[in-house]
Each structure stands twice: as C-alpha cells, then as structure tokens.
Write a structure and sequence with these properties.
The protein is mainly α. It is built from five helices and no strands.
C-alpha cells in the first residue's frame, strides 16, 4: 500500500477555494433554472439549454416552483390561454 503524503497548505487552500466556487456556481444555476420556470418557461425549453428535464424539475421544486400561478396556467385550456394572450395579459391578477 502506498504511503500517505500530506497536501501542502497552498494546494489545500487552492482546492478549498475551488470547491467553494463550485458550490456557489451550483446554487446560482439552481436558482436561475427555478426563476426561468417561475417566469413561465417550459421544462423542455430550459432543459434544451444543457440539462436533463428531470434535473430542471428537481431544481425548480427545490426553489419554489411551481407557483400557484404556474399551476393555474398548466391546467388552463387552449381557449383560455389564447384569450389571455389576446388581451395582452401575460400575468394573472
């Protein structure tokens, strides 16, 4: 079995900083995905930006999606959707 060799302080600091950067980037990604979903983007369209649909849904749910408005729009009929859009009503009151 190979002998154990310690990590230098400089290398350890570099690794810790990189790990912290990855965690922050992951959090930023999750919040950006969730915000896009809350703003009305479809899971499929967000996934086309480089994530799986399952991952998009997971990130969305972890950060408050779907909202009540998202749920209402999901269940509205095509007629209701067309009517809302013709009024220029992108958001419900």
């Amino acid at each position: 079995m190979p002998d154990s060799r310690p990590v230098t302080d400089v290398d350890a600091a570099r690794i810790r900083a990189a790990v912290d950067g990855v965690r922050k980037a992951q959090d930023k990604l999750e919040k950006a995905v969730a915000q896009a979903l809350k703003n009305g983007a479809s899971v499929r369209e967000v996934a086309d930006l480089g994530l799986s649909a399952n991952t998009v849904q997971k990130y969305g749910r972890a950060h408050g999606w779907p909202t009540e408005e998202n749920r209402e729009r999901f269940y509205e009929s095509q007629y209701d959707r067309d009517e809302r859009r013709s009024r220029g009503d992108s958001r419900r009151a």
